[in-house]
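Appendix B, record 7
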Amino acid sequence: MIDATQNLILINGENKTLQIEEIGRDDAGRFNVKYRGSSKVYRYGSEKIVWLTCAKQIDIDHNRIFIRQRRVYDLKEVFSFEYRGSTYWYVVYTSNYSQYLLDEELIIKTSCLSDGKSQSVFEYLKAVASTNILGKEEEKDNTGLLSKLYEKIDFIDDSRAIAPYLNPKKALKKDKSGRLIYPFGCNASQKRAVVCAFEHQISIIQGPPGTGKTQTILNIIANIIRKGKTVLVVSNNNSATTNVLEKLDKAGLGFIVAPLGRKGNKEAFIGNQPAVPDELQDWECNVEEKLRKEEEAENLLRKLDRIFTVQEGLALSKQELQAVELEYNHFKRDQIFEFTSFNSANSLSSTRLLNLWLQFQAYAEKDVIVPKEWWNKCLAALQWWWMNLIGRYVLKLNSKFDKHNLSAIITELQTLYYHRKIEELNERITNLQAELKTYDAKTELNRLTEVSMQLFKVSLFKKYGKEKRKVFSSVRDLRVDYQSVLEQYPVVLSTTFSSRICLSDQAEFDYLIMDEASQVSIETGALALTCAKNVVIVGDTLQLPNVVTGEDKEKLDAIVAEFDIPSGYDCAGNSFLQSVCTLLPDAPQTLLREHYRCH
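Structure tokens (predicted):
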């Protein structure tokens, strides 16, 4: 009998293992095969048969096994065979029934808590959660809801965004962003933030009030939906997520959102489930028109990339000019020399003048020590000759060349540098302003916004235009049939605290967007990260962090002293935003640089 746990036999590409009683090879290298229930021996050439004997046994105690997308509990053994990029699985159930599966018919999910470092940090967060007072008034044993949520967790899929947070040595996953749209408008930094959200497993968006953080979140949501994915949007309180819903409602898109969270929000949602708008039928678009719009959007993005580059270059040049002029004014007040003419400074760049200034400065600071060796004397003489040549005949400096007193020459070089630098910046600003006038930035951006919204609506018609929307009859339906909820409402809103119970603790979102993350506590933010594969963290480290009372700080300090963990996890000293910035320096951070609320 062939032991199927250690052998896999493919004949002409088909798995025949369970049909074979005996197999062997003769001296010519051919295979002799005897099938079950037959006395005849069949001979096959070596090119007809693949015989694999290098099985790998899967640890089913510390992994979760899914067969055809359903978790299986009654497994006895699982073995895998690798051949030419394909995986053949041999599965034995507790009933001794066995079967073969191919590639993604069987999926293994590993817990990130199986690694000691992650487990230690998670145990610390669990201990901190026990001090969180939120929900304690609703729990009979006064332990608090957050603590109970942590206690229920014994497995976290290694693909979830919390895995690299618990162990920063794990590499952050990267991906290609693909084609993106901007139906809510954008500027240069907002566009970068959206791209980073889709190229990195964890990305951070920072910006003061009025820089368009909500606008950026809406663009990210639009692209998530267009890619057929789901997103959980959370914040420390309902006001930030309500703002997202209001903006989508204003655009006629609120029907894709389920504002859930705690029980009261779920009951309100059940009682007022939004209908798909009638105008959705007008969003249909044929393939040719859709391709034309996508091509137009790509062309607009390329043009806007150049406009954004010019705008940023102009802003930075003006900023630099202001700084250089201020520095020059301070410099002039400290000088006793005054130069009124500069014969040839225009022929050298400010960078070259700066280098010469530093060379003369370095020469002066050596105090002209006379070298003893003849080759060093020659080298020093050559250096002084070259400096004289540049100063007298290239720059035509007015100051006297005295190697024992170079202060006048250095001052003149500094003055030349400032004059030339200011000239260059003014010239650059003039050129950028002239180029910017050749574009109609506002018209191009408005058109991109319009075409992007059309493309977004086309994708919504494709999703909702053919089938009648399912209606959920109870809060229990939301939990039990959470996959249908996500199919109908790919955008779910919740508080950070309620992220794991807004639907089902089994629900997996493709993306998590956490707004106002500077006000989120670490233990609450980390819990939200267990819900999604990718996360976009939005906030501002310069705004007020989450409040930690003196009493709470004493408790938290006592807990952190019991664990050997990096200071970035210290819940008393960090908000969740600060913690992520500290622990994951490789996660891209985008600062939204344009402010719209003031002059």
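Remarks on this record: The longest strand covers residues 75-83. Residues 188 and 305 are 7 Å apart (CA to CA).
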